[in-house]
C-alpha cells in the first residue's frame, strides 16, 4: 500500500514530471549529438544510417546512460 501511495504521489506531482521530461529531452539531444557527431538540434533531421563504427565518445559513457 505504501508503494502505491508513493507512486501516486510522484506521478501526480506535475512540476516534477515537467522537470523530468525536460531532463530526458536534454539527455536525448546530447546523445544524438554524440551519435551523429554534429551540432544536432531537435528541429533537424538525422541522416541515416549512422556510421558503422560508433564515435569514440561512446566508449566513455556508462551503460545505464545508453
TrEMBL record:
GO terms for biological process: protein ubiquitination; ubiquitin-dependent protein catabolic process. It holds the Pfam family Ufd2P_core. Residues 1-66 form the Ubiquitin conjugation factor E4 core domain. Keywords: Transferase, Ubl conjugation pathway. GO terms for cellular component: ubiquitin ligase complex. InterPro entries: Ub_conjug_fac_E4_core. Transmembrane segments: none annotated. GO terms for molecular function: ubiquitin-ubiquitin ligase activity. This is Ubiquitin conjugation factor E4 core domain-containing protein. It comes from Monilinia fructicola.
Amino acid at each position: 500500500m505504501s508503494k502505491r501511495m508513493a507512486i501516486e504521489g510522484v506521478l501526480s506531482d506535475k512540476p516534477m514530471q515537467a522537470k523530468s521530461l525536460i531532463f530526458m529531452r536534454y539527455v536525448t539531444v546530447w546523445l544524438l549529438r554524440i551519435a551523429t557527431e554534429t551540432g544536432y538540434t531537435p528541429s533537424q533531421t538525422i541522416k541515416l544510417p549512422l556510421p558503422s563504427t560508433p564515435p569514440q565518445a561512446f566508449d566513455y559513457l556508462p551503460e545505464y546512460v545508453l
